Amino acid sequence: MENRITVREALPGRDTGRFRTRLLGYRREDIFTLPGDAASLGREEEYFSHMLSLRHREDGRSRFLFFERDGEEIGLALAVIYAAEEGKCFLTDFCVFPEHRGGGTGRGCALAFLDFARRNGAGYFELNYGGDARRLRFWRRLGFVENGVDEWGEPLLLLPPEDEAPIAVEELRAEDFWQLLRLENGFRAAVGEESLGSEGQQRLLQAVKEGRIAFFLAKRGSRAVGMCSVVLSFSTFACAQVGVFDDFFVEPAFRGRGAARALSRAAQDWCAARGVSSLTACCAPCDEGMYIRLGFGTRLGTNYAKLL
After folding, report:
1. Residues in domain N-acetyltransferase (predicted)?
2. Which residues contact 161 (CB under 8 A, 6 or more apart)?
3. Across the strands, what pairs with 214?
4. For residue 46, is pLDDT > 80?
C-alpha cells in the first residue's frame, strides 16, 4: 500500500552509524539546541553509548527504530520496553526527519510506533516531554495525559494501560526508593514546590532508613502509582504516640481507582497496630471533604507554624 508508514528495527552494525548521526543531530537541533563545544558533544555521545549498551540485555533492552514510507527512512524512535514492569514502554526519543514533516506524518509515525510496541509486549507508554507545549499538544491528541514528574523532576506524559488491574498497598521497600522519588517529585510539583535535589534525596533516604518516617506505596503490579507517609511523635497531652499523615499523592492517570482510600486505610491500620492514639492530616480547605470521607473527621483546631 502506498504511503503506508512502517517500523523497522535498526540492524546492529549496518545501521548503527546512520542512526547515531540522525539521533544526535535531532537531539542537538530539536531538543537541547546545544552549542557545538566538546563537553556538549561528549554528553550526547555518552548518552548514545549508554543506550547502545542496553541493546542486548534480557529485560528492558533498547529498541533502535526507523520509520519508513515507501522504502524511504523518514524518522526514528528510541524506546525501552520493560517486561518486568507490566510492559512499560519508555519512549526516550521520537523524531520525524525535517524533510518529511507535515501532512500528518508525525501522527502516522506515532501510531505505527504504538502498534509496533504493543506487538512487542508494551502494556502502556511513558515519555518525558521536556515541558515543551508543542510536544504536549502532539501527544495529548494521541491519548497521553500529564502524569507528574520523574525522579529528576522532569515532566512526564503517560498513555495508561487499557486493562484494569487491582491496586495494592505495601510499606516502602528499598528497591522501590527510585519510585518514591518519582512520586515525591510529582507531589511537590502538584503543590508548587521544586523537585528534591540530590542533598534532599539523601536526607529523605536516611530518614527512611532510620525509621523516622514510614512510607506506603499504592502499586498497580510493580508500578507505584500513589504514596503517603506517617511520622510518629510523642504527645504529652495523650501520653502516647501520635502520627502525622503526609505526602499524600496519587498519579493523575490512576486516580479514581481506589488508590487514595487504600493508602489512607493502610496508614490508619499501621498506626492502630502500634497503639498510636491519633493520626492527623493537615490540608487545604479545598481538600477537607476528601479527608473527612477518608476517616479524618475530628477537627483539632487550627495549626500555625513558624518556618525556620
Report:
1. 5-162, 167-308
2. 86, 123, 124, 220
3. 230
4. yes
Answer whether 67's CB lies under 8 Å from 96's CB: yes
Residue 232 pLDDT class (50, 70, 90 cuts): very high
Cell (9 digits) for 10:
535498526
**Residue 80: beta bridge partners?**
62, 90
Task: Judge whether residue 297 has pLDDT over 70.
Answer: yes
- Helices 198-209/177-190 angle, 10° precision: 120
Instruction: Say if strands 167-171 and 155-159 run parallel, antiparallel, or are unpaired.
Output: unpaired
> How far is CA 123 from each of CA 71, 89, 97, 301, rounded to the nearest angstrom?
29, 7, 27, 47
Which of 281, 261, 287 shows the shortest CA–CA distance to 169? 261
Query: Which amino acid does the sequence have at 140?
Result: R
C-alpha cell at 301: 483546631
Closest by Cα among 262, 7, 24 to 113? 7
Contact 279, 271 (CB under 8 A): yes
Phi–psi pair at 249, nearest 5 degrees: -155, 135
pLDDT digits 0-9 by tens, 161-218: 888 889 999 999 999 999 999 999 999 999 899 999 999 999 999 999 999 999 999 9
